[in-house]
Write a structure and sequence with these properties.
DUF418 domain-containing protein, DUF418, membrane, Bact_Transport_Assoc, mainly alpha, transmembrane, single chain, globular, 74% helix
């Protein structure tokens, strides 16, 4: 029985374009966090009042924040479902394969956190992937219902805080002695080991955000991806995109109206100061942001299948084929740009400058990925991951 992985020539190009697009958006968001950590970000950004910087921050809020993480999560769930169903159809073992694949992805995530950047999501995806066997056996109705509940439930913070109190865990104390100036000093002048220690503290401090915000959204989109994969929507994607044209445009219009109202009006209302109202307003904003991310996928699909502009999207597929490598590479570039082991640019750039740098570096990634894929079948980390998963050396040269 063959244990070789799927050959590159069987890939669905539009999925690689989706992945490349997600990697671009994630980098645009992550570079802002790499440049100024959450603890000091609002104070740092508040000093920039030039039109270009204010416009940049509005662009990020409207078109990037909370749009691309859901896309990445959906594509991950879709990919897992496609792999599981393919192996099932070919009567190949699944449990061992999937367990190894998720274990090594988790390991990649942990190494990413320890040695490069604390904002990793790979370990979270790996943990979700371990439960694929349970979720994929559920009925379509249950999968969609769970996805909607996970996305729409507004009170994760309350239950998470209660849980932390029960186990006497206080994540915020880990950075209680660190202000923005001290963090800046460690990142720009400290040793690599001091930076490593800071990354651990940042990760633990950000656990409420990881578990109370990112994890529910990730699981919701993971389930949606499983649903799409389980029902083989990819095999009829062109027709599916055409069929949902009207509802997706209506949803995009409604959710974008709310997003503009939230950013420009609702946060200034007196009722926003009430915790319950604020929680509900923010949850609606998150739902609208996720809807915007799904609209991006529909729009890319429409351009790909129903317009002559495919060439505009083509460069994204090179990054998408090497999504894991490029994702980790972006974090490494951030380490070099902002920390003491590189150019020490932490909290020295304007918002518009960080955006421009992200776009330039992504273009470089497109070029490097295209050159690499002329000679090799897989990205370097993708190849390592495959070899570990399949327990054998897989040929990498074209």
């Amino acid at each position: 029985m063959s244990t070789l992985p799927t050959k590159p020539n069987t890939r669905i190009e539009v999925l690689d374009i989706y992945r490349g697009f997600a990697v671009l958006g994630i980098f645009v968001v992550n570079i802002v966090i790499m440049h100024s950590t959450f603890i000091n970000q609002d104070a740092y950004l508040a000093q920039f009042t030039a039109p270009a910087d204010l416009i940049t921050q509005k662009v990020l809020q409207l078109f990037f924040y909370t749009k691309f993480f859901p896309i990445f999560s959906l594509l991950f769930g879709l990919g897992i479902a496609m792999q599981v169903l393919k192996r099932k159809n070919e009567h190949k073992p699944i449990k061992g394969f999937l367990s190894r694949r998720m274990f090594f992805l988790f390991l990649f995530g942990v190494l990413h956190i320890v040695f490069i950047w604390s904002g990793d999501v790979l370990h979270l995806y790996a943990l979700l992937g371990f439960f694929t066997f349970i979720f994929i056996k559920l009925s379509n109705k249950i999968i969609i219902t769970l996805a909607l509940i996970l996305l729409c439930f507004p009170f994760y913070d309350f239950f998470l805080e209660s849980f932390f109190n029960t186990i006497h865990f206080e994540p915020y104390v880990y950075l209680s002695d660190y202000n923005g100036a001290k963090i800046n000093d460690i990142i720009t002048t400290g040793t690599y080991l001091e930076g490593l220690h800071l990354r651990f503290l940042e990760y633990v401090t950000n656990l409420p955000m990881l578990l109370g915000f990112l994890a529910p959204v990730a699981l919701s989109m993971f389930l949606l991806g499983l649903f799409l994969g389980k029902n083989k929507i990819v095999n009829k994607l062109e027709l599916f995109i055409f069929k949902i044209k009207t509802p997706i445009l209506v949803v995009a219009l409604i959710t974008n109206l709310y997003r503009v109202l939230f950013l420009e009006i609702l946060t200034d209302l007196d009722c926003y100061k009430t915790e319950l109202i604020r929680t509900l307003f923010i949850k609606l904003m998150v739902i609208c942001d996720v809807a915007m991310g799904l609209f991006y996928l529909w729009l890319i699909g429409w351009i790909w299948y129903y317009t002559p502009w495919q060439k505009v999207l083509n460069p994204l597929k090179y990054v998408g084929r090497m999504a894991l490598t490029n994702y980790i590479l972006q974090s490494f570039l951030g380490l070099i740009l902002f920390s003491s082991i590189g150019f020490k640019l932490y909290e020295t750039l304007k918002p518009v400058e960080t955006l421009i740098i992200a776009l330039i570096l992504f273009c470089v990634q497109v070029i490097l990925s295209k050159i690499w894929l002329k000679h090799f079948k897989y990205g370097p980390l993708e190849w390592i991951w495959r070899c570990l998963t399949y327990k054998r050396l897989i040929p990498i040269s074209n």
